[in-house]
Amino acid sequence: KGKNESISSALLNMKPESVQRHLSSLDRDNICKNMIPIGSRHNNKDAPSVGSWNVWDGLVHVANAHNGVLAPIIGASGPPSFYADENEGATNSGYDTDHKSFRSLCRIITGQQLAGSAAVAIYKRLLSIMGSSLDNPYGLTPESILAIADMDCGENHVIEEKLRKPAGLSNAKIRSIIDLSRHYKCGNLSDSFLFDNQITIDVLRDKLCQVKGLGPWSCDMFLIFHAHKPDILPLGDLAVRKGTAKLFGVKGSGKNGALCEKKDLAMLTRIHEPFAPYRSLSTYYMWRCADTKAFNAS
Asked: Model pTM?
């Protein structure tokens, strides 16, 4: 292997005997009860399931991959909380199945290139404009956004005064949210489509990337945190690459040896391959390795 492709020999020689010890710190019964299979606890039988894979099996697989290198981190960090939070919300009697994906994508758009606290603050402002809150977000819909946008008659005064400024959004982000709303209105996007487990990842990405302002990173965040796809590896995420470099002791082609999404693609893919088909989980623990809060941790 070349000098930029070597994985730390200490990690390669690590014995897997401690994996079970680290996993024993997790509450397996509670994980199975609350997280497996994802989406099975919807009270509304017509609500779309957001997943069907076994989180505990995923944790065991990821913990054992690469001779157990992630096991200590999994044991210390526990399972990703967003799976349990999703199921808890799904049991509420007021659970809204019509625009869940729309609100998730709005949250991702408002949080692009922002720290967690700033992203949450702006999303809260957008909800407030629609008479909603984090606890009761149901007023944020494509219709409520377009009711304001369509009043503007092409001059942007209404959008500026009633949407962009009060929410603290950039021009690009408010255009993206309006375009997203139009995609939902015309039926190009919907909960039933985005949460359909029969739709391939490539098709989902293609549809999402047709929205102005939604690129590969935003699509990956939606697929991991909201559609709950098990095998997403967002190499465009800087923290994932930093976590990979830190955990495996590798250097890339970037400045000061940083891993580059394009130039080091083959090496990154090879390093993460043993975690498949649960690379969404290993991605979460790369954030932990990089000491970076997961996107929706706040």
From this structure: 0.82
